[in-house]
Amino acid sequence: MSTNSTYDVVSSYQAFLNDTELSTPVAVFKALTEFVQHSTAPTMSEFMQTLEKAAQDIRQEPQIISSSNNKNQHKAAIAVLAGVDLFMRFVTRNSHEFSLSEEAGSFEDFKGNLLSRASLILDKASSARDKAAEIGAQFVHDNAVVLVQGYSRVIMSVLSYAANVQNKRFKVYVTEGRPNSDGIQAVSALRKNGIPCRAVLDSAVGYIMDKVDMVFVGAEGVVENGGIVNKIGTFQIALVANALSKPVYAVAESYKFVRVYPLNQYDIPSETPEIVTFTSRRKSFSAVNDAETVDELALSNPSVDYTPPQYITLLLTDLGVLTPSGVSDELIKLYV
User: Name one GO molecular function term (predicted).
Assistant: First the structure.
């Protein structure tokens, strides 16, 4: 069987992840597009086998990044799944359409057609965040107090658009965002945009919620029932907001929609060991320094949680404003 012996799809995927403005699903799509470009498979059958193996390699890669800003942080497995599903659905649909086309030619023609369409999808994906931000900004009103969860690129875009394009005045509370404390990064970004903001402890959400008018959260994945998978702590924020009748708006690009239907927290794809697994007494009480304790907490605790649809007011996406129940309709359109 002919394979891409000189092309390392996992290394390509990791390289794309180094672009801080590129989301995980888009990084997966780009890596698999390059895989197709380098493919030496002579037939459709061999091509699909090698492509499925490449997709599996990306999914099995431990989703951990190490950097000065995000030390030992798990990447959300559901975001990888969204990217793989998006690309495999794209290939399957195009192979079917190409086989039925009157212009259907050789296998190389098919690959050329696939790469051309992949480029169009990536162009569309590159504008998805801006479109979602423009729609999301409509829900930020003058003199509002907004609560956001840690750092999210799409939420930063929403608030920047509302402040700098729509000239709205508002204030922002940002949760600290443990374990990697990316809320500090969000505060820095907001202040550079001239937006009044303040970081608050994750444990202070209940305390400040009375002063909040609305909550904005991003999403690593939007699941079939309209719930979201996002940074750990999102679920408890949504619970507190619901108890005090505060709207929760989830902002996400449509390429994060994924065919997963979780029933509870433990149904979501995750690279993180279950928190309910206890360590031995000896390990629990061993003498370690503070830095080791923080690293151990980051790796042994979940990085994302699942927020059920009943706690989300609206989903604000590049496809428009959706109710949680409307997500399943959009997924049907994407997969049929």
Answer: translation initiation factor activity
- What is the rounded distance in angstroms from the CA atom of residue 166 to the CA atom of residue 163? 6
Within 8 A by CB and 6+ apart from 64, the residues are 72, 73, 74, 75, 271
CA atoms within 13 A on the CB side of 83: 28
> Would the pLDDT of 275 be above 90?
no
CATH of region 133-335: 3.40.50.10470
- pLDDT tens readout for residues 15-26: 998 888 888 999
- The alpha helices in the chain, defined as continuous H runs, are 9-17, 24-38, 44-60, 77-100, 107-137, 153-164, 183-192, 205-208, 234-243, 281-284, 290-300, 327-335
What residues are paired with 144 via a beta bridge?
Answer: 170
Kindly report the pTM of this predicted structure. 0.83
Domain positions in the chain: 9-126, 133-335
